[in-house]
Amino acid sequence: MTGLLEPHAIGQSLTRLDGPAKVTGTAPYAFEQPVGDPLHLFPVQATIARGRVTAIDSSAAEAMPGVAGVLTHTNAPRLASDEDRELWVLQSDQVAFRGQFVAAVLAETPEIARHAASLVRVEYAEEPHEAELRADSAKLYAPDELLAGEPTNTFEGDVDGALAAAAVTVDQTYTTPMEHNNPMEPHATIARWDEDGLTLYDSTQGAHTVRVTLAPVFGLDPRQVRVIAPYVGGGFGSKGMPHAHNVLAGLAARMAGGRPVKFALTRQQMYSIAGYRPPTIQRIQLGAGADGRLTALAQDVIELSSKIKEYAEPTGKGTRVMYAAPHRRITHRLDPLDVPVPTWMRAPGECPGMFALEVAMDELAVACGLDPIEVRVRNDAEVSPESGLPWSSRNLVACLREGARRFGWERRDPTPGVRRDNGWLIGTGVASSTYPVYRLPGSVAMIRLLGDGRYRVSIGAADIGTGTWTALTQVAADALGVPCERVDLRIGDTALPMASVEGGSSGITSWGSAIVAAAQAFRDQYGTEPADGAEVVAETPDNPDAARFAMQAFGAQFAEVRVHVDTGEIRVPRMLGVFAAGRIINPRTARSQFIGGMTMGLSMALHEQSVMDPRFGLVVNHDLAEYHIAANADVGDVDAIWIDEHDPYVNPMGSKGIGEIGIVGAAAAVANAAYHATGIRVRDLPITADRFLS
Amino acid sequence: MIPFEYLRAEDAASAVAAVASRPTAAFLGAGTNLVDHMKLGVASPELLVDVSRLPFDEVEPLPGGGVRIGAAVRNSDLAADPILRSRYPAVSRALLAGASAQLRNLATTGGNLLQRTRCVYFQDVTTPCNKREPGSGCSAIDGYTRYHAILGASSACVATHPSDLAVALTALDATVVVLGVHGERQIPLADFYRLPGDDPHRDTVLEHGELIIAVDLPDLPFAARSTYRKVRDRASYAFALVSVAAALDVADGSVRDARVAFGGVAHKPWRATRAEEVLRGAPISDESFLQAAEAELAGARPLAGNEFKVPMARNTLVAVLRELAQEEAR
Amino acid sequence: MDVRIQLHVDGEWRALTVDTRTTLLDALRDRLGVMSAKKGCDHGQCGACTVLLDGRRATTCLALAVAYDGAEITTAQGLTNGGMPHPVSQAFLDHDGFQCGYCTPGQVCSAVGMLDEVKAGQPSYVTRDLARSVELNDEEIRERMSGNLCRCGAYVNIVAAIREVAR
């Protein structure tokens, strides 16, 4: 058990420290960093899904005034490592997915680069491809492990026997579509080579992650790669790891004679280069007594991966910790296809998996004639169902109860399809949320006392909109026992000490723990009267409690849905999330994280679907007019609150990660409310108007 | 985008002459659709003649009671125009249903009418499309059809027209005033757009070099009781799955006259003449409205994946007519 | 094809050379280094590039710079008055109406333009009675701000910020 920090700055609703620069647009994002005399890069993408490049005619492009060069696999600098095939850019004639980079033009202006790229003629030897996820695919296989090393399959007891004996069963298949992260800032990088190595101004969730990933690809020592990313226009996972565009920019900069190379993906290009959430097909089987208590719980997942790089979405991860049931089976199978490489997207695993589980739980409630909250309460797990570990804290039931009270749940008539107002059918639904407390190893914080009495706190962390600039300042202030004004935080640069990626909602736990350790070391070393320039570094310590406790945040989400009787249009006027996520560092930015996740979950529920045309291997709705994310008018009264939760085991701040839990369960709450409104059970996302028309 | 020359037109005649004399020239309004297509490689004009500042920026009464809308009137200004709001509310609502406020502040009346389909294959030059590249084939017909036609399509093209404004104008019998090298001509909007047939690359009957200078709305008193309803996948800022523009003239419990057009269902705004025939003289009731809708949609031939548009169009029309009838009753 | 133009950007005349292909957005960002207008989609589909163009909110990614010679452009940066944030910007700060900040300058410009449109009596798609003056309720704000996408999901706070300024 850790001694928790005494909260002074922690818990204060500070406005964002980076706010003034952001509301005026003066915070420099990657592409906006001032560099002198840049060249501009525009790529050529494969127009086949599988095969070989047989010829490239770049003569017309090269002849164009203002073109500095055309890169192809025949002339691009050689890379040092092909371990990550996604990053093996312009190194061979092989085409592994439609949209793969096959050439690129470097030019004096963006207009010239783009026009010249359109003149590069590429010929292919096309081979048959497969781009459609199919449950009956002959190629399904079980990966060795899932995304973060989770087991592919887990079994307990006799699921089939328990299902056969169950008083009530639910056996349904749920699907979630391919979804693209679509941060508002397109992936962008400025690359420059000089005698010291490679500098990247990058839009990334982890400057150090980019460095350690790309250094071996370019055959460099990590110290030869500098990555700068103080402001990042969203990522939601797609900027968690570098992608092919980073490598392409680096290759181009190699050929640019020391000039910086600017490269921003177009929105359209992001659909094949920047990653996405793979589609899933999930069969859920629930067996329960007439009292709604689960006896059997099975989730069998079939999901897409790419042939060149395995990506195993840990879809059943949430189910492993949610509900108690003696007989359990959770399995994953991958269908490897000739498609772009998937990646993390907000709550990989929990997000699609909990959609299926939480709709299934609603179906169980209906089958048992029980209130859906009561079903969840009855199946609350006293210990973590698979590991058997006690919880460091678990307040799912408190969230459900508090949400029910605030949402007006007690007045709810469970009968579906009977509430009508001016042509709209009305319903309400609930779903549970969960997300683990992750602590990534290896972050290092440096604290130095400046001459003006302020402490410079340096750590190569990231703020992708999560509020890191502000929240880490608050953590550092309490760790040092000073007001926030005396903390001068530096993040977003590999010139600062190592920091883990902003992913898995792990930032505050990982980086904050390093800062607290450094502050402790500072006091130990310098006592109460440190001299100017006094300096320490410290690393994120291991948490011995992590082996003793299961650590998860929990929540409950409520949605009101209206479905138009005539047109089938669906609206969500109201959502409420109640979360139990330890101590909240900054209520203002934390609420934004929660409602932001819920809003993205609403968007997932109603809109999002990357339409893969399997004939081409192409996501055909590859822009923001055709791939819908929720607009302002789609989002009603979304609110999030939290319950006081004391957890002395997770980290010295007592906090749990909050960046992802808001999206977990949100789509299920909407789907369940849509059922309550209409009596129509939608098991395939997104929930569009046509589902309600006959 | 290929390099191009830019010319700001001094007057309409010289603009027409400049474009008509050069096959690779095009008129530029606000460019909110053309520049989009130039970036995608869908359009590659070598000369742009900017007509956005020609003096066609007024909404004026016409002798005989109609209204003339200048082709350069911005969508937002037109939507807010007091005459349109009171006498032709369907037109205002249709404009307000389109795009976003910051696009409507730029987009012109003429440009709106000439926007091209949102078919995803049309917009992606790496896929076959008969509209973009005649003879290359239609990728949509066996592909992603959610936004595609259920009426009047051909085996060559199943695209829909994306304009909201055009649907309302079609319903209300508007006429397009066009200037060509041989002078002006007037084309009823109902005849302005084409069905795809065998040559879907042509959206309209305009000849190269013909410039829309105005749109005339005839005097139609019952258009004051008109509206536009757009059903889409987002609550705002999205193209129509199905839309309906309608005006209803009601007396003594029955329909005296009606104007109806559908959007999102065909290669052109779909004037629902069969529905109008059924409505004329029919009693005001959901049954009448349903019969009208079904008469029009009897010819619907949905594609695999957009079958839902038939009930969606039917129900939306019934809902709109019901609303207009109730409005009339108040 | 290069053309010389002048733009009045955030209170200052700027002369520049653009390709005829250069959009107003790229003229600001690539030629003038004015980065407040953001590029989110480059096709009029997100609103991140919204500025006040001759006083009205407008997307700049589909506007050819050459067609706007002499235009007056105000970005979110230019809304600042003597170092003091614009009331809309301040409300965004107070209500945490943003997270990553990338759509934010466009949201701010859009909100400023939108409030002027309401003042001028312009209706929206959700205005019940086109003949009457507009009452700026939440539904109106949401509809009128729907041309600015926010992937972080700050809409609720954006609406709260604008509601406060409109009061």
Overview of this protein structure:
The complex is a heterotrimer of chains A (694), B (330) and C (167). Chain A is α+β, with helices and mostly antiparallel strands. Helix content of chain A is 24%, strand content 24%. Chain A is built from 15 helices and 26 strands. In chain A, the strands form 6 sheets. In chain A, strands 3-5-1-12-9-10-11 form a 7-stranded mixed beta sheet. In chain A, strands 7-15-14-13-8 form a 5-stranded mixed beta sheet, with helices on both faces. In chain A, strands 16-17-22-23-26 form a 5-stranded mixed beta sheet, sandwiched between helices. In chain A, helix 9 (350-368) crosses helix 10. The radius of gyration of chain A is 26 Å and the shape is globular. Chain B is globular and about 60 Å long. In chain B, 29% of the residues lie in helices and 21% in strands. By secondary structure, chain B is an alpha+beta fold. The mean pLDDT of chain C is 97. By secondary structure, chain C is of the alpha+beta class. Helix content of chain C is 31%, strand content 15%. Chains in contact: A-B, A-C, B-C. Chains A and C meet through helix 1, helix 3, helix 14 and strand 26 of A and helix 1, helix 2, helix 3, helix 4 and helix 5 of C.
